[in-house]
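User: Before I run my own analysis I want an independent prediction to cross-check against. Here's the chain; please return only the structure tokens and, at the end, one sentence I can use as a sanity check.
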Amino acid sequence: MPEGISQEIRKASIRNAVNYGKARESTVLNAVLSKFPNMRPEIKQLSIEVSAEVTRVNGLSAGQLASEAEEYADEFEEERKEKVEKTAKPKMELEGATPGSFTTRFPPEPNGYMHIGHAKAAFMEKEFSKIYEGKINLYFDDTNPEAEKQEYVEAFKKDLQWLGISFDTEYYASDNIEQMYSYARSLIEKEKAYVCDCSPETVKEKRLVGIDCQHKNLLPTENLSRWEKMLAGNLPEAVLRYKGAINDQNTAMRDPTLFRIKAHEHYRQGRKYLVWPTYDFNTPVMDSLNGVTDVLRSKEYELRDQLYYELLKILGLRLPRVHSFARLEINDNITSKRKLKELISKNKLWGFDDPRLVTIAGLRRRGVQPQAIKDFVLRFGMSKTDSKVSLDMLLAENRKLIDGTSPRLFFVKDPVKIMVKGIPDSQRKIEIKSHPSGNLEHRKYNLSDIFFINAYDAFNLKDGDTIRLKDAFRIKIDKAGKETLEASYLSESVGDVLKVPWVNEGNCLKATALELGKLLTGDVFNEESMLAVEGFTESKALDIEEGSAVQFERMGFFKLDQKEKMVFIGI
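Assistant: Structure tokens:
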């Protein structure tokens, strides 16, 4: 047997036994062969040695196995970390991309607020720009004056900055309209585009039966003349169409619209232009002109890839690579701008920063950290598998980040007063850990005789019951009641008893905890997606900065949204 193989058999057997309780011969044999592939011709003899070692290892006591495993502790830990790293993150690579010669772009349309789907694209593009040692540009695809606003541009920039995503260059499609017009004329001259002023109904009818538009076969000179009339506003219903095939199997190639008239004031260009390019035209042109080598976009655009490349080839422009990935959709939530605006107008939502939403403004207000969003969206990588995921996955990522720095406090819902007599002076000064680690400053209070506990804890208490005020002392209920209870301090140990959160009269504040649920039930707005819980919390809450997180015991994590009113939002 080659040198080192016996040691590898021993190590593989111990590793397998530690991970799964018992070592398996087949698993150990495969592990050894992966390290010594030249042993395959000797597999019979190798199997005998593996069988003997597996039998020996499986005969060890738990203590003996742990002792032998200690020899490989560092190596096993490194292997574990490597495995976690490989399985936790998807493979991040783009076919054809070249390190040092890579440029991509994040192309939002400023017609609404940034949401979790935008964040997925932005973080992936940023990561690839790092992986391939290249650049990432911020490109505002702003050629629809009817819907776009400077407000949305600023909102995107604010959200991207908060997420920690920076860019090498920033540019706007609307700053390049004259150049777009020049390329449109070139298409017309090459008989690859025509001006159509048919009614939408006529276009639809002809497409259904596969009949070309009557304007399609006009001479280039006639179409150029019609194009100039269109620019001057003398053909108010006209559009410029790509000259495709009306029966093309790819529906995106059936004479798609490249330019259309939008008689609205543009947030950036005012009323300088009347005719505006569509996404299908300005996107490939802008990508090529701005040095983009690799385009990442959701797979819903895959049918448009053919048009993307054909336009660039006809215009003699450089061809970027296009890579597709699946959209990120969150169960029981909304990203549609139309639906969100409707709910906001009906006062069902606070605005685009409502903490129930998966807009970046909403997630920020909820207390979700940028790193949690990044870790969450990158786990899906370039997968093209459609899936809807639960928001709980993101919130779980967030809890990992905030757990270590979030102080623990009590919050008492629907407070019921409890008067405790007989508290010795030695118990009136209390110090409670603010975090299980002990790393955060402890809460220190001087206690009076009056406490408040949750109504649901008080509801079932009877005379003579014993409870423990959590992290303080035991008390016995002398007189139960719906609004006020009377109790006595107990010094003796009486075994396990119910532990209840509490606040003391001299050390509490009125507070509101907003508990969040699913935004939708099916497709219907959930009227109980946000419930306001009134109660008391500890005065230590005054030390928490607005925007910071706290964990209310038995309730969960909350963010202090309004310090003046002590309003907390569930995370």
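Sanity check: DSSP finds 17 helices and 29 strands in the chain.
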